[in-house]
Predict the structure.
Amino acid sequence: MRIETNVTRLLGIDLPILQAGMSWASSCTALPLAVSRAGGLGVLAAGPMYIEALEQCIDEIQSGTDKPFAVNMPLYRKGAEEVLDLLEAKRIPVIIASQGGPKKYLERFKAIGTKCIHVVAGEEHAIKAMNAGVDGLVIVGGEAGGHPPPSLVSTLVLVRSVAKATDGCIPLIASGGFADGRGLLAALSLGAGAANFGTRFMATPEANISEGYKLAVLGAGVSDTRTVGGGLGMIRAIGNRFTDRMLDLEGRGVDIETRKAVFLASSLKMAAFDGDVVEGKMEAGQSSGLVDRLMPAAAVVAEIASDYARALDALPRAVA
């Protein structure tokens, strides 16, 4: 099956399905490789990776498929320049950059033909990135796991807002709240050319997170995530003892230094790598409440595409 949009044409993929770059979960070969082979865009998350491991994963993906893949690059990470040098040397097909301005990487990657996608969470940054010359934008709404926008404006509203502001001049990828083909259909109807699926791909055998973390995603309802860490790099995570402690401190208006100490004492690695789902940061989106099965990543891609086709066919048609 193929679903052609401005994003699939830009990236050279068959389906407007992107697997979000998720630290730890897609900081591996298996998940992005499986998604790219299935016709979507697999995304290798460089954020927590040592340079040697990152290079090895890129080599394995490049040798495992001739289809496009992307590397998600948080521009604030330690050793960012060294990582950018590596990505340039490897001539990766797509870079998806976040948490920084596009001028830091844009010229050098466009010069080698890499497609440059920038992550934004509002109209102002979207227009700035578009005017800087990026090839596409990921628009992150409030439902998203990991780092949603501080405003928590919903994806439904935010994507429409950015689509109107950019007036069709740049391909958009909607992110936050998508778990199935009906969500993909909604994203395309808003003016996006693709949807970003993060939490859905956490519940796959290929996702590089602990079994306890995966079970927490499968067991969560749509109202079981919490946003904590305002002013400290807010995250959305499945509720546990860590989020309870943070919500208590925030609710009582405790000073920011005390909150910072508690916030930094927990980490995503604790949940993803060590399996500590009580005290670790189990970052996940509200769409975890729509995920109830562990499935191979390729099967997830196929199911999203077929679900999209059924949903599209079932839509009421306008009559004169």
The mean pLDDT is 97. Residues 297-314 form the longest helix (18 residues).
